[in-house]
Design goal:
It is built from five helices and 25 strands. By secondary structure, the protein is mainly beta. The chain has a single domain, classed as Distorted Sandwich (Beta-galactosidase, Chain A, domain 5). The chain has an eight-stranded antiparallel sheet. Strands 8-16-23-22-19-18 form a six-stranded antiparallel sheet. A hairpin with a 3-residue loop joins strand 4 and strand 5. The two termini are 39 Å apart.
């Protein structure tokens, strides 16, 4: 049943009220027309629940801008949602990735490397890998009824391959249901080659204003919170709390650990005072499976313009592939093997729901 505009409708009841289902839910392909976005293939998803988001088929099927009842959820960088032709992999000591990092709700880092740029063996690897700048193929989008549920779906594949090297394919399916505030991301990474291949995977979930303000905080079931470096040691005790944009702020990165027996982990950015759609309080929650993504990184950036908090489930840390190898944490994917990653992003509104979510605050 579809829960829309305060009422519940069966398929038959809802169709009696509309001339076309696109009045309340739609998946629509578009091509951008201007500047560095020109010819970028995008798929716009609209849900009468108040949820709207853009899936960039030209950029790894990542989720760029996202809104709930007109309220922006994601941080968007000054680079804009650039076409992948502008991807500068090697430039600026391997940090050229930042030239096309638009932020967005979900940016995928991987498939064979993620984290800091650097050498691994005799090869140089740039920041955060190629996935987010790789155009997808076999792209499909649809809205369809399954019983009394109307599902909005985008799917496709990206390939990271090189002659005499890796041959990995990501098959991504993104789904939301009419009336729902939940986005489901189901990924399968397959090794289509004939050699054991390094596999690093990180989901860069970038939350911005107005969800992030001085009133906001991170909720997570953390047992420990470790700073990445000396900069993150400063303010460690307030890692889960945020403040106004600050001039000259330097990013702080924290590694969170969770109970070993916790299968599904839920973290969230909460703004208890944000008014949206007649309610007070809004949160973006992220759920993932710890056996799939055993690491969680908090990226705290409280700068002017760069005002964002990243929730980053991963199968690695962010020191780069060589460091991951040296620590014994580097994962490999065998020929013919398929790895699955399942995430849910949920928008939660209202004081009562926020209070229940906030019972566990990171670092408290």
């Amino acid at each position: 049943m579809a829960q829309v505009y305060g009422s519940e409708y069966s398929r038959e009841q809802l169709l009696q009220h509309v001339g076309d289902i696109s009045q309340v839910a739609r998946v629509m392909p578009v091509r951008r027309m201007e500047g560095r976005e020109d010819q970028l293939h995008s798929i716009e998803v609209y849900n009468a629940s108040g949820l709207e988001f853009s899936v960039l088929a030209g950029r790894g099927l990542d989720i760029a801008s996202a809104r709930f009842c007109g309220c922006s959820l994601a941080w968007l960088s000054p680079t804009g949602e650039t076409h992948p032709a502008y991807f500068d992999h090697e430039g600026e000591n391997g940090t050229g990735w930042l030239r096309s990092f638009y932020g967005g709700l979900v940016t995928t880092c991987g498939l064979t490397y993620a984290g800091a740029a650097g050498k691994d063996g005799d090869r140089m690897y740039g920041l955060h890998g190629r996935a987010a700048n790789t155009p997808a193929y076999n792209v499909a989008w649809k809205g369809e009824w399954q019983g009394n549920d109307y599902l909005l779906t985008v799917e496709g594949r990206i390939r990271e391959a090189v002659v005499f090297g890796e041959n990995l394919e990501l098959h991504r399916t993104i789904t939301t249901k009419l009336g729902s505030n939940v986005i489901c991301i189901n990924d399968k990474v397959a090794n289509l080659g004939y050699q054991t291949t390094e596999h690093m995977m990180l989901y860069h979930i970038n939350v911005g204003f107005p969800l992030v303000t001085k009133h906001s905080y991170l909720v997570s079931p953390s047992t420990t919170v470790m700073p990445r470096d000396a900069e993150a040691v400063i303010g460690l005790e307030t890692a889960a709390d945020f403040h106004e944009p600050s001039p000259g702020y330097k990013e702080k990165v924290y590694f969170h650990s969770f109970p070993a027996d916790m299968h599904t982990v839920q973290t969230a950015i909460v703004n208890p005072l944000l008014p949206v759609n007649g309610l007070t309080g809004l949160a973006l929650a992220v759920r993932f499976q710890q056996n799939q993504l055993p690491r969680f990184i908090e990226w705290k950036m409280m700068g002017q313009g760069a005002y964002v908090v990243g929730m980053e489930p991963a199968n690695c840390l962010v020191f780069g592939r060589s460091a991951e190898r040296d620590s014994g944490g580097l994962q490999n994917i065998e020929p013919g093997e398929i790895r699955s990653y399942n995430l849910e992003l949920e928008i939660i509104a209202g004081q009562e729901n926020i209070a229940a979510l906030s019972q566990t605050r990171a670092g408290r």
